[in-house]
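A further point concerns the way the authors explain their paired sequence and structure data. For illustration, here is how one protein appears when written out as sequence plus structure tokens:
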Amino acid sequence: MMIKLLSCSFLLSGLLCLAAADSPSRLDKVESYSLEITPDGPTENYFPVGTLRGTDIQKTRSGLNWGEESLCDYQWKDGSPMHMLDLARPSGSLFHMGSWGAHTFAFTTSTRDFGDVTYVLDEDGKLQNLYHVTLFNPNFRRYIAAYDGELAGLYGSRYGRDQLYMWSLDNEWQGMIDYQPLVIELYRRWLEKRYGSLDELNRVWRSAYASFDEIEPPPQVPRRRPEGTEAVNWLNWYYFQSENFSDVIRERFEAMHRGDPLHRPVGLKAVQGCIDFSHWTKRKLHNFSDLAEKTRDFTGGWLGCDVYGNNDAFEYEISFLDNCARPTAPDDSSWYGVNLFETNNHGGPGWQFADTFWRSLGNGLKAVDFFCMGDFGDNPSEDPEVFGFIARNGRIRERYFYVPRFATMLHRSEKFWKQARAAEVPRVALLNSHRDNLLEDDPGGVWDAGENSRQALYARLRNLGYWVDVLPYHKLTPEFLKQYQVLFLCNAELLTDAEFAAVAEYIENGGKVLGDLRCGYFNENLEVRPETAAVFGVGFQAKQNWHEKVPLSEAVSSRTRAFYTPAGAELSADGLIACHRYGDGRSLLLATGLGAWRNPAVKNASGDPKRIDAGTEADEILQNLLDR
């Protein structure tokens, strides 16, 4: 114990002599910096904290004890024995082992023992490459399960828990919309099963198909909001492929879990784009909530992702991932947590790095691998030069000085941070309405959260001091929702019947909902839901693009507005706010976006009213709504 505490106190002084050839050996062992790493391996209270790249001694002297290893064995599909890498680290640092089986198809789609696979075909007939393979191809499914299983068996037998902590899959692999003939044929059969009959599909889709074989898939990525039959077809086309992607990942998790003699947990090294960016949601297939629900048997409670960013937008994403990993039953005490396989605040300043990652601990972060220490040698790559803690010329960037402080703080109270759960204090919930992103116009940039931004609403609520949980659809159950004071439904027009019923029951039992636009007006197939009138007390007219001044406290307008007709609700004089009592609770709908308020007195570069993202004005408006 004394040695470990002494080592922590000498941490910064030890960093000053990283290159010392005759440094004390105990300072070069990760167990000297953490009370939760023993000679027999980590305890259940071990909090992995590491960084990619850099030398073993650099990372160890920084208080880091975690990293990534991976195998992309191109020769295995040709029948060669799987390569065995020497992964032992002198420091005793632990690692997750990545099975990059999908990446093995970067150069060819042929295999010796499993037949050929195919690359994804886009709507223009162009084949993709690298790891973008047809996920419905049975040869690929057999190949990838065998690859993952053999890797887990070989490396799982060679490396014990004192080194290999868990498994991961590929690198930011999230699937693509595929127009291969096999996929289109399977889609038609999936629709037949989903709707039961052609008459039912034609009723829901408002179409007149004579057979399921007439149905053609929609354009790959709608550049504008699709309407009518095209919109329903697009939603189903996406649901079909996204659900299959989750099924493929579950099969891979199961193969690794079964192949590993110690049955260690498995995580997907995904990327954050599909959380709340419509550009990526429409182009990739990953549904974090669906995957978390389907893979709980193999993850040990972990949900993995690569997340880059800072401040409120970053915390929004961590909160969402945490609530995907969180069991749906409120009384389920199973452990869960977010594992950031890669992360950084881009190339931002040190104070921003500190603000972001210290806050993330309270939102569910349980493991972190920063990208990266730096990239050295004759051919350094661009990403490490941008993100690295140490520049190419050897200059230590200011972000780096927070890394050992962060690690040391974790080590001092490691059990607490690893086992901590959300405090039972008053909180509000904000739904991450993933389906509505599928119908959004393409935003101005690929990392643009869109006009009606839930991330902006999250930031306003945090400014007001509210603890906000960002929820996936799976958490819309009566038992789960009753723990929240308020439920925010921002740009959430598409809810399933079960989800809408849970929201209605939440209000009826005393809850409060703040929603916007045509909240819950459609089911997942864009069928109009008449029950919204009884729950929210209004009828909905068409939603329009709207640039004129709409007074809300005489200061706010939005480009997007819904028009309400009273059906029991009390409407404000300007028609923007509808208050309604339903059972023991009440709803408040805003006819303009909760995340898209604009000040008509101030114009942006395009001449439109400037959006109010934060500040006193936005805070006062939101607090007034909460107080109504």
Summary: The radius of gyration is 26 Å. The chain has a mean pLDDT of 87.
